[in-house]
Specification:
By secondary structure, this protein is mainly β. 5% of the residues lie in helices and 37% in strands. It folds into 4 domains: 33 residues, no CATH class; 206 residues, Single-stranded right-handed beta-helix, Pectin lyase-like (Pectate Lyase C-like, 3 Solenoid), CATH 2.160.20.10; 120 residues, Golgi alpha-mannosidase II (Immunoglobulin-like); 167 residues, no CATH class.
Length: 616
């Protein structure tokens, strides 16, 4: 047994402890008191790890940190795959990985070839730059020879499932080239490098040499900051099932992660690997080839019943290839809140049936709230949903999210046999609000702008038919509600429709206006601002409060209490004498301007860092 008292470690066996307690007339009390381990670019792994003698690598600290310890990493760029090795014991005895306060700490999966002694050469025949690297540069992992699909699918059939639902871009690789922080796009040949910021790689047998070609436009790559992908993870333990770990305040970028289907180990820039009680808070994650944060299937054996219970909060995830957050089966009892996820699959290089801002399978008791999701893209062969709750999920609350420009559904519920799903106070702009073969969903007090609510019963497998679908007190500006399947079991009532939005024929107490509602939004460095007009038909409503009594079936929140939607998008209590459709409890007649989302100051700086504009 290991006890830490005043930062000194004392080793006592259990019998020695009992003997000490029984033989003493004094009450013996020992409290675990963790130590702080420091890491800095001026450090050395032979040091003690103190503030004045820090370690050089985060992994050195990770090899020593035990429950209650804090690893504080100081400013600089750390080119390593961080591998936590031990678990915490409880909420009070976590292992904390944190960036030092007000210091920028970057964990990157890329390398500067300039620092490794290599240089780009301009080829006069092809009029492109090329870089020749030996096998030793990459070691055991060469992302330029690894296809984007997950390794376990390499030797199976080439059907949709064989590729892990990767429907297009199957010839793409995990490598990438970065010019002053800007990620490039892969092309299939040297001749195809007609656009600036594109690359192509050729790898000789057994990876003896890798030749990378790139179009840098008018830039000389030897005079700029150019890096290439090298590592498959940012923070991910090799051991499955580690618990009570906190990751706080890091910038994690340029990760050569794979596509992450929901039937095998799900990779990402940050991976909990089947663990439980991870807090992933206040981090920046950019350019993960697959997923930014994975709470899905582990790489090895772990106790499934103990998994989940994660808090994923206030992270920024930009330009990930597959999803901001993804997981299957191992992420139950989790909270995902206050995150910003932008430009998922914005290059449309590869994709399929796993592309989304947030995509979860087979989990229960999850809250997804207060997130800002902007831009989820695909081509004609794949999906692109904002929040996608897919297959045998139960007990979800999806509340107070803003989802803009998801190419397909802003929110998609698919193949969920048992609810409840409470979808409240969300602001969805463009796309659809979709239910496919799912039951027990309540959509209440949402604002849909150019969004169609729709249902579909899938005919394959044993997927359920839509039932207990409830849509109450929502506002539609354009778009509207499409007809449900004839055998669907649904309740639609007290919704408000503007700008010729299509209303449901069973919405008996619907409100409509002939007045044009001009709805505009602006995204600035500071946040999201909405500007819109409010006719009296919208503002002067008096609707029933949405409770378990007003739905067709009881809806409970995670705390077990009956759901009462008495608060609005901003957390204000609704006036029960004048409840207004949509997410806002208070609206003024005529023009309204509301700040819907306030961005953290670091967002603008982060976007500038991946723009390709070199700082002077």
């Amino acid at each position: 047994m290991r006890i830490r008292i005043k930062s000194k470690v004392i080793h006592l066996c259990l019998s020695e402890m009992l003997s000490l307690i029984l033989s003493s007339s004094l009450f013996f009390s020992c409290v675990l008191q963790g130590k702080e381990i420091h890491v800095a670019k001026v450090g050395n792994d032979a040091n003690s790890g103190s503030l004045n003698a820090p370690y050089l690598s985060i992994n050195k600290a990770a090899s020593l940190a035990i429950a209650g310890d804090t690893i504080t990493v100081h400013q600089g760029t750390y080119r390593e795959w961080v591998k936590p090795q031990f678990s915490g014991l409880s909420e009070e005895q976590r292992i904390y990985y944190r960036a030092a306060e007000r210091e920028e700490v970057i964990i990157t999966g890329s390398e500067s070839v300039k620092g490794a002694g290599y240089s780009w050469q301009f080829d006069e025949n092809y009029k492109q730059w090329k870089l020749v690297l030996p096998k030793a540069f990459f070691g055991d992992f060469n992302p330029f020879s690894k296809l984007i699909r997950q390794d376990q699918y390499i030797d199976v059939d080439e059907s949709s499932e064989g590729w892990g639902w990767l429907m297009y871009g199957r010839n793409k690789h995990r490598g990438n080239v970065y010019l002053n922080g800007l990620g490039f796009s892969e092309r299939e040949s040297i001749q195809a490098l007609t656009e600036v910021y594109t690359w192509h790689a050729e790898v000789t047998p057994e990876d003896r040499f890798t030749v990378i070609w790139a179009n840098f436009g008018d830039k000389d790559p030897n005079q700029e900051n150019v890096e290439i992908n090298l590592r498959p993870f940012g923070i991910a333990p090799l051991k499955s099932g580690l618990s009570y770990i906190s990751i706080d305040g890091f910038t994690i970028k340029n990760i050569a992660s794979s596509w992450a289907p929901p039937t095998v180990f799900q990779a990402g820039a940050v991976v909990v690997n089947g663990g439980s009680h991870w807090n992933i808070i206040n981090n920046n994650i950019t350019y993960s080839k697959g997923v930014c944060i994975s709470i899905g299937l582990p790489s090895g054996e772990a106790e499934h019943s103990l998994s989940g219970h994660h808090i994923i909060k206030e992270n920024i995830m930009l330009r990930c290839g597959q999803a901001g957050i993804a997981g299957q089966s191992w992420g139950s009892h989790s909270t995902i809140m206050g995150n910003i996820i932008e430009d998922t699959n914005y290059l449309k290089e590869y994709g399929g049936w796993e592309t989304a801002g947030i995509k979860l399978h087979n989990v229960t008791d999850v809250t997804i709230s207060d997130n800002f999701i902007y831009g989820v893209s695909t081509n004609d062969l794949g999906a692109a949903h904002g929040i996608w709750i897919d297959y045998e999920n139960t007990n979800f609350t999806i509340a107070n999210n803003i989802i803009i420009k998801a190419q397909d559904a802003a929110i998609m519920l698919e193949a969920n046999w048992q609810g409840p799903f409470l979808i409240e106070n969300n602001i969805l702009i463009s796309g659809t609000a979709a239910v496919m073969s799912s039951v027990d969903d309540v959509w209440a007090h949402n604002l849909f702008v150019d969004v169609n609510g729709r249902w579909l019963n899938q005919t394959y497998g044993d997927r359920p038919a839509v039932k207990n679908a409830v849509w109450l007190n929502n506002t539609f500006i354009s778009g509207g509600i499409k007809k449900a399947p004839k055998d669907a079991d649904y309740l639609i009532d007290n919704n408000f429709y503007a700008n010729n939005a299509k209303s449901s024929d069973i919405d008996i107490n619907k409100r409509e206006t002939i007045m044009a509602v001009q709805f505009d939004y602006a995204i600035t460095d500071k946040g999201v601002i909405a500007s819109f007009t409010v006719p009296d038909e919208w503002r002067l409503q008096s609707l029933p409060l949405v409770t378990a009594a007003t739905t067709k079936h009881p809806i409970k929140r995670r705390n077990g209490k009956d759901a009462i939607i008495d608060k609005d998008f901003f957390g204000q209590l609704r006036n029960q004498q004048q409840i207004i459709a949509g997410p806002f409890a208070k609206l003024s007649a005529g023009h309204n301007q509301l700040t819907l989302y306030v961005f953290p100051e670091r967002l603008a700086k982060l976007k500038a860092s991946i723009s390709g504009i070199r700082e002077n």
